[in-house]
Amino acid sequence: MREKAASIVKAAIARLEHEVGEGHGKATPKVAGELRDVLKQNIRNIDSTLEAAAHAALTAAGELEGWQRWRADQIRDELVHKAEALVVKPLGGRKQQDALRHLREQWKTSDQGGTPNHALWKRFDEACNEAHKVVEAWLDKIKAEAVEHRGQRLALIEEM
């Protein structure tokens, strides 16, 4: 029974160490939870060395998770500052539109790596919406010019 419990715990530790080693942020919490469950079921049948190894692996997984959350928030903070900079000093027209699209794509990517930060999201979204007003004005101007050019073309066709 002790050998079976030890092999189960060793396998769970190996899976967790592999995930931590690979840096898989999404899979690590699930595998860490599995190791906790295995420990609960087999804690009486394993020696203290194996138990210490399991706790060390869980600690490493927790550190990885915390680091990823910290890094994701750092990236998000940079994106907020870039979006707010577009409000203060707009690029104008197409460049502004492309910059906003790129910032939003980067935000989606950062959300996949860690837990969402709603306070930063709110600041980011408000800055992007404010910066998008420049794009809306540019689009309205382009549409008005297109209508004017179309009218001129139709007038020329009428004359012909």
User: What's the order of the H and E elements?
Assistant: HHHHH
Unreliable segments of 5+ consecutive residues = none
Helix content: over 70%
**Could you give the count of β-strands?**
0
C-alpha termini separation: 98 Å
- Give me the Rg, rounded: 28 Å
**Strand fraction:** under 5%
Structural class: mainly alpha
Largest sheet: none
- The backbone outline, from C-alpha atoms, is rod-shaped
Number of alpha- plus pi-helical segments:
5
| Mean of residue pLDDT values | 88
Keywords:
160 residues, mainly alpha, 5 helices, rod-shaped
Q: Describe it for me?
A:
This protein is mainly α and 160 residues long. Helix content is 88%, strand content 0%. The chain contains five helices and no strands. The protein has helices at residues 2-22, 27-42, 48-88, 93-113, 118-159. Helix 2 (27-42) runs antiparallel to helix 3 and helix 3 (48-88) packs antiparallel against helix 4 (93-113). The longest helix is centred in the C-terminal third of the chain and has 42 residues, at 118-159. The model has no long low-confidence stretch (mean pLDDT 88).
